[in-house]
C-alpha cells in the first residue's frame, strides 16, 4: 500500500519569529490574539500534527517581550502574558485580555459551550464540551492529551507530562476567533450537493423489496430523497453463540437482501446514494463472507476460526479493513459509511481514541469514491476539537420528547463555537418518548432548517417517520417542508461554499453577529445563513390560540416572516412569535435574496435546477452570489485546500443584485458556467401594494398570500452578459394591517366567546390612547397566550395605524411542560 494513502495537508511547525522559549517553556504567537503555550519537563516540544492543530505556521504578529530573571512578559495589542518561568501554575502564568485575566489551570474553558460526543439516550439537555468562544474576553483550549500524527500521516503519541494549549484572546469578536480556529485546525470541507437534501433512515429489518417500495412510495407522494441509509440489519445479526454479538457484521443478510448488488444498483437508479451502518468493535469473525480474504491479507491463521481483532492502531489491520473488507462492499455499491462507534474511547495505545482514528482514516479513504460522491464524506460521531474536518456528524440516539426537541437547536448552534457545522440529528427522535403529530411536525420543521435533514427512528412497530403514517394535517405539513428542503438546496449549497471558504458556518448563534446582551439570551434562535433568523417552536400548541409560540429577540432593522409575509416586524426588541402548526418563524431582513429551486417536479439526487425563483425582500440593497459546483465537478486533490477541495475560482457563480433606490434587479452574468437554459422568477416577499405589472409589461405577474411573483423566463435569451429589470423605485414591505390580522387570530381562538369582545374592543374599537388600551388588554382576565398573540400583531410594525410598538406588554406564559409536568402534557397534547 502506498505510503501517501493516509497523507493530508498540514504545516505544523510554527514560524520561529513568533516563538518565545526557555529550557522548559515555549510560547508561540500565532496571531496577536491567538497564543500557544507549552511546558515540558524533558525540554522537548511538540511540532507534530495533533488532531486539533494542523497548521501552526502563521505570519509573525507584532509583539513585545519584557524579560527579567524570574519573570517574562509578552505583550500584544490584545493580551498581556505574565509568567514566572516555573512549572505552569495559576499563580505563575496569567494572560490579561481586556478586563479579564486567565490563570492557568490545565483545563479548557469557553462558557458559551461547544458540542458533545453524542446525544445517545438524551431526554433533553446534556453537558457540552467547551468551544473557543466565551462571555469573558478569552477562551482556552487544552490540547495536551490529543492524538498526534507522524510525518507519514500515521498515529503518533505524545510524551507524557507535557502541556500544550491555546488561549483565544478575542474579547467578543467571535467570528474572528472561529476564522483563526479554522486557520490552525483546517477548514470545513465542501459537502456534495446531494448531501444537503432529505435522507431516509430507520433502524428496521427491511427486506430489499420493502425498502425499494418505500423509496417508490416517497416518489409517488412527490417527496424527494437523496440518501438511503441502511441501518445495521443489512448484515447478519442472528449468530451462533460462539461468535458473540451480532452488533458487528460485514456479510449481507441474504434472507433480507438476496441480491445486494442489484439492490444498491436499484437505489442508484432511483437517484439515491447509499450508506451502511458499521459497528466495527468486534472485528472480523469466522462467519463473515470475507473472513478468509482479510485473514490472507493479514497472515492470520484461520484453522481455529479465531476472530481477527479490531485494532485501529495497527496499520496493517486498517489497510486490510479498508482495502479488502470495505472496498469489496464499496464495489458492490456502498457510497459512504455510517461509522456508528459506541464502544468507548480506549485502544491498546494510551491516548488514542478509536473514534478519532475511524473518523480520520475513513474520511481520507473516502477519497477513492469521488467519482460517485464528488467529495470525501463520512457519517460519524463527534470526537473532539478538529472533528469539523470530517463531516457529517451523527449526533446519536435521542429520546422522543419535547425536552429533546427544545435542546436540539441550541445544541446545533453552539456546535459552531468549536467550528462543527454539519450535524445530522435523528429528526423526529430515535427511541422512547411518545407518538405525537405535533412533536414530529415541529421536529421536521427544525430539521429542514438544520445542517442535514435525516428522518430516523428506532426498531419499533409503532415508531417510524413516513409522513403519510401521521394524521392528514401533519402529513401535509411534513410533506411541504420536506419538499421545501430540496427547494432550499441552491441556497444551502452556496452556504456550503461560504462555510468552507469564508469560515462562516451555516448556523450561527445570535451573538456571533450582535454584541447586544440580549443576543445571549435566546439560545434556541439562530442565523441560518447571513440574513435569515430562525426561531423554532419547540413546545406544544396552546389549546386556546391553537398556535405554538416562542420568545425571540430581533436585532435592529425590519424583518418579514417568509412563512407569513403579512407579518413585518421592527427589530431592536424581544417579541413573542406565534405560529400555527403549518409554520415556524423564519425572519428575513430587508435586503434579502434567497434563491429556491422551483423546478415543478423535484427529482431525487438534487440535480441543478432548471427553474429558480428568487425570493426578494425589498427595503434595503441586497446582493447574493449563487454558487454551484464546477462544470464536470473536478474533485482532484485540492493541495493545501484539502482532499477533493477544488479551488474557489472553479465554481460556477451567478451574481444577483438588488438596488433599492432605483428598484432594479440584476441577474448574472454567470461565471464559469455553460449558460444553459434556465427559467427565472422573482417573488417579492411581503410586497403587494404596488402596480408591478405596469413596471414590467410583457411579463406574467401574480399576487398571492402577501407576495408578488414575476415570471422572467430564460434571462440568457436576452443578454448572456447579465439581465436587468426594474420593479419600481424604493419599494417597501407592506404595512401590517393590525385589525384584520387580530380579527383572524381571535376568530380561530378556542374558548369563551364573551372573552373575545373586550380584547377586540381594546385593539380595534377604543379611541383611548394606545398605552391605555395596551394596559387594558394586559389586565383582562383572558388566557395570557391570547393576549400575547394579539400583542405580537399590534406591536409588530411601527408604521401600522395606532401601532403598539414601544408600548407592548407581554404576559409570562411558561412552557406547558414546565408548569404541568410531562404527564399532563402528554395527556393534554399528545395524540397516541
UniProtKB/TrEMBL annotation:
Claim: Hydrolase is one of the keywords in the record: yes
One Gene Ontology MF term: alpha-1,4-glucosidase activity
Reaction it catalyzes: Hydrolysis of terminal, non-reducing (1->4)-linked alpha-D-glucose residues with release of alpha-D-glucose
Source organism, top-level taxon: Eukaryota
EC number: 3.2.1.20
Domain Glycosyl hydrolase family 31 C-terminal intervals: 504-594
Keyword Ribonucleoprotein part of the UniProt annotation: no
Segments of this protein annotated with the region Disordered: 629-651
Broad EC category: hydrolase
UniProt keyword list: Glycosidase, Hydrolase
Protein family (similarity comment): Belongs to the glycosyl hydrolase 31 family.
Name of this chain's protein: alpha-glucosidase
Organism, scientific name: Staphylotrichum tortipilum
Amino acid at each position: 500500500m502506498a505510503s501517501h494513502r493516509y497523507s493530508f495537508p498540514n504545516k505544523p511547525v510554527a514560524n520561529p519569529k513568533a516563538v518565545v522559549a526557555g529550557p522548559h517553556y515555549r510560547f508561540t504567537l500565532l496571531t496577536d490574539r491567538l497564543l500557544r503555550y507549552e511546558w515540558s519537563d524533558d525540554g522537548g516540544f511538540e511540532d507534530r500534527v495533533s488532531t486539533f492543530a494542523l497548521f501552526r505556521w502563521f505570519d509573525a504578529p507584532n509583539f513585545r517581550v519584557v524579560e527579567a530573571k524570574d519573570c517574562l512578559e509578552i505583550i500584544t495589542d490584545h493580551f498581556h502574558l505574565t509568567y514566572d518561568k516555573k512549572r505552569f501554575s495559576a499563580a505563575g502564568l496569567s494572560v490579561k485580555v481586556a478586563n479579564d485575566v486567565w490563570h492557568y489551570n490545565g483545563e479548557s474553558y469557553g462558557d458559551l459551550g461547544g458540542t458533545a460526543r453524542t446525544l445517545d439516550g438524551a431526554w433533553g439537555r446534556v453537558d457540552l464540551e467547551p468551544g473557543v468562544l466565551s462571555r469573558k474576553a478569552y477562551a482556552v483550549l487544552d490540547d495536551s492529551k490529543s492524538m498526534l500524527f507522524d510525518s507519514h500521516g500515521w498515529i503518533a503519541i505524545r510524551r507524557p507530562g507535557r502541556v500544550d494549549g491555546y488561549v483565544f484572546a478575542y474579547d467578543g469578536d467571535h467570528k474572528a476567533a472561529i476564522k483563526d480556529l479554522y486557520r490552525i485546525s483546517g477548514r470545513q470541507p465542501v459537502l456534495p450537493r446531494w448531501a444537503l437534501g432529505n435522507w431516509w433512515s430507520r433502524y428496521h429489518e427491511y427486506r430489499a423489496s420493502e425498502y425499494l417500495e418505500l423509496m417508490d412510495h416517497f416518489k409517488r407522494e412527490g417527496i424527494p430523497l437523496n440518501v438511503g441509509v441502511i441501518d445495521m440489519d443489512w448484515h447478519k445479526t442472528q449468530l451462533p453463540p460462539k461468535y458473540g454479538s451480532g452488533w458487528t457484521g460485514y456479510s449481507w443478510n441474504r434472507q433480507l437482501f438476496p441480491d445486494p448488488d442489484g439492490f444498491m444498483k436499484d437505489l442508484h437508479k432511483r437517484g439515491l446514494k447509499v450508506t451502511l451502518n458499521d459497528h466495527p468493535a468486534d472485528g472480523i469473525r469466522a462467519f463473515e463472507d470475507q473472513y478468509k480474504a482479510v485473514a490472507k491479507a493479514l497472515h492470520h491463521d484461520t484453522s481455529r476460526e479465531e476472530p481477527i481483532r479490531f485494532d485501529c492502531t495497527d496499520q496493517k489491520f486498517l489497510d486490510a479493513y479498508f482495502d479488502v473488507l470495505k472496498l469489496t462492499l464499496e464495489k458492490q455499491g456502498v457510497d459512504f459509511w455510517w461509522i456508528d462507534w459506541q464502544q468507548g474511547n480506549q485502544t491498546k495505545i494510551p491516548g488514542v481514541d478509536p473514534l478519532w482514528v475511524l473518523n480520520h482514516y475513513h474520511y481520507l479513504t473516502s477519497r477513492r469514491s469521488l467519482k460517485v460522491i464528488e467529495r470525501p464524506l463520512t457519517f460519524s460521531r463527534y470526537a473532539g476539537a478538529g472533528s469539523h474536518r470530517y463531516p457529517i456528524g451523527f449526533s446519536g440516539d435521542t429520546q422522543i420528547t419535547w425536552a429533546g426537541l427544545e435542546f436540539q437547536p441550541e445544541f446545533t448552534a453552539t456546535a459552531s463555537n468549536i467550528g462543527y457545522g454539519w450535524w445530522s440529528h435523528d429528526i423526529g427522535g430515535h427511541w422512547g418518548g411518545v407518538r405525537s403529530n405535533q412533536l414530529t411536525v415541529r421536529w421536521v420543521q427544525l430539521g429542514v432548517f438544520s445542517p442535514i435533514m435525516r428522518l430516523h427512528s428506532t426498531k419499533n412497530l409503532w415508531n417510524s417517520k413516513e409522513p403519510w403514517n401521521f394524521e392528514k394535517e401533519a402529513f401535509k405539513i411534513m410533506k411541504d417542508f420536506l419538499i421545501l428542503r430540496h427547494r432550499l438546496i441552491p441556497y444551502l449549497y452556496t452556504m456550503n461554499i461560504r462555510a468552507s471558504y469564508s469560515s462562516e458556518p451555516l448556523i450561527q448563534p445570535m451573538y456571533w453577529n450582535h454584541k447586544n446582551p440580549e443576543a445571549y439570551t435566546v439560545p434556541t434562535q439562530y442565523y441560518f445563513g447571513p440574513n435569515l433568523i430562525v426561531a423554532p417552536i419547540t413546545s406544544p400548541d396552546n389549546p386556546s390560540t391553537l398556535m405554538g409560540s416562542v420568545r425571540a429577540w430581533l436585532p435592529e432593522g425590519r424583518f418579514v416572516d417568509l412563512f407569513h409575509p403579512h407579518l413585518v416586524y421592527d427589530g431592536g426588541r424581544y417579541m413573542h412569535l406565534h405560529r400555527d402548526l403549518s409554520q415556524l418563524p423564519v425572519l428575513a431582513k430587508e435586503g434579502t435574496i434567497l434563491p429556491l429551486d422551483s423546478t415543478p417536479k423535484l427529482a431525487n439526487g438534487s440535480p441543478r435546477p432548471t427553474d429558480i425563483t428568487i425570493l426578494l425582500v425589498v427595503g434595503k440593497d441586497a446582493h447574493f452570489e449563487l454558487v454551484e459546483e464546477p462544470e464536470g465537478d473536478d474533485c482532484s486533490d485540492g493541495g493545501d485546500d484539502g482532499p477533493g477541495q477544488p479551488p474557489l475560482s472553479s465554481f460556477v457563480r451567478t451574481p444577483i443584485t438588488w438596488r433599492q433606490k432605483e428598484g432594479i434587479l440584476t441577474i448574472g452574468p454567470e461565471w464559469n458556467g455553460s449558460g444553459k437554459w434556465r427559467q427565472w422568477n422573482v417573488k417579492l416577499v411581503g410586497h403587494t401594494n404596488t402596480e408591478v405589472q405596469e413596471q414590467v409589461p410583457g411579463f406574467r405577474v401574480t399576487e398571492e398570500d402577501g407576495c408578488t411573483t414575476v415570471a422572467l423566463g430564460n434571462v440568457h435569451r436576452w443578454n448572456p452578459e447579465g439581465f436587468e429589470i426594474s420593479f419600481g423605485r424604493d419599494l417597501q414591505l407592506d404595512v401590517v394591517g393590525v385589525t384584520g390580522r387580530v380579527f383572524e387570530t381571535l376568530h380561530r381562538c378556542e374558548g369563551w366567546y364573551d372573552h373575545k369582545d373586550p380584547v377586540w374592543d381594546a385593539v380595534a374599537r377604543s379611541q383611548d390612547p394606545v398605552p391605555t388600551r395596551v394596559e387594558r388588554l394586559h389586565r383582562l382576565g383572558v388566557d395570557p397566550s391570547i393576549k400575547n398573540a394579539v400583542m405580537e400583531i399590534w406591536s409588530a410594525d411601527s408604521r401600522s395605524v395606532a401601532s403598539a410598538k414601544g408600548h407592548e406588554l407581554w404576559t409570562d406564559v411558561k412552557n406547558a411542560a414546565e408548569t404541568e409536568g410531562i404527564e399532563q402534557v402528554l395527556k393534554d397534547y399528545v395524540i397516541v
